[in-house]
Specification:
Helices cover 57% and strands 1% of the residues. The chain has 428 residues and is mainly alpha-helical. The chain folds into two domains: 204 residues, Hypothetical protein af1432, CATH 1.10.3210; 208 residues, Orthogonal Bundle (Hypothetical protein af1432). The protein binds fe (ii) ion (4 copies).
Amino acid sequence: MMVRMDQLIRAIGVSLDMVEGDLFGVCTNHGKRVAVLCAAMGRRLGMDEASIAGLAACALFHDSALTEYLQYKSDPKNKAGLYLHCIYGQRNVDLLPMACDVSGFVLYHHERADGTGGFGRKEGEFPLGAALIAAADVLDQANRLQSVPRSNLEKLRARVAAESGRAFTRSAAEAMCGALAGDTLEQLRDEHIRDTVERMIPPWFVGVEDAAVFRLAALTARIIDYKSRFTGQHSTQIANRAWLMGGVCNYEPVHRAQLYLAAALHDLGKLSTPLSILEKPGSLTDEEFAVIKEHVRGTHDLLVDVDGFGDICTWAAAHHEKLDGSGYPFGKSAGDLDFNGRLLACLDIYQGVSETRPYHASRGHKETMEILDGMACRGLVDGDIVREMDRCMAEYSDRQLPPPPPASEAVDAVLGGLPRPLPGPLKR
Ligand SMILES: [Fe+2]
Ligand SMILES: [Fe+2]
Ligand SMILES: [Fe+2]
Ligand SMILES: [Fe+2]
């Protein structure tokens, strides 16, 4: 079974844009516009399609380490600390085997040609890919390209040319001036950007069991988890528990890989849930709870467009459904929920209950199972799955499960050494 890796990267990139929007007020679809501009510049510079695919993936992921960075720095405006996201962001893209060399593309995306960027490198001392991402990044953020009228095209080109050799390298400025032509600005608007991306970025097919997909999923689980200090290992642990259960159930490798991916990405929509609600101490208002619930629809809407992700999307989006129809977002009931959807719902409850949250302390295996048992008795979750989990999870209730080999090889080698974010004291 094949998956469109470029579409998956894009879906994850969209949610990363939302994090930037939440934290920094960055405009919508920023990553997509940066990717499209990079692809346009790359083609003008004669890059081949494999290089453009790699460049576009880096452009979509250029700020992928922002949630992680925020665990280390409480002030997002702290410039010195901000460059950490370049270092961690490069580690992120290095995990995705690309068809071209992307060394330094994300690491140097805040460099300037005149050497006044984060690492003080001058034009020629950082790769072209980084120079193109930097130019597109600055141009979009400074000018909010989603709403610039066509009549301003010349003014925009003049601005780019004026920065040649200063903010932008000469080749990036020249390629950008060339790319800003005709109906480029219309194509970058929110209503057209989706089609523009599909047209401009080359498709990239990989098998669902490919290590690249595992690594991307494991990495994304970490990005989601890093958003809030209360979800430090939530998605990662659920993914690893799902992998364990897939083994217990004797799933074929493809089936087990699909279950792992659904688990790793089940809360992808949470990247767009405001941090103020995720970390609110005490109980939520009805309106706030309605916002929280939207994260599942978000996961569904992001994954539904990824070719090869049909079942994965369905299972991921089922993790808050209940057998009696009282769950969300679709209000599905027993007849609509298959084994893997039910399993993810149970794993999500198990992991959530055993974590420290603003509204409850962490609980051990026995207490967590009593809660799940009670829910099974009330017809909310699958009793057979609960019994199976009781048998399998006791051993792993309070420690990190081993990730699946295709994800662990690279992800833990690269990211395992980083300090884990520690949950802070509960605020009441
Ligand atoms: Fe950045
Ligand atoms: Fe950016
Ligand atoms: Fe959730
Ligand atoms: Fe969850």
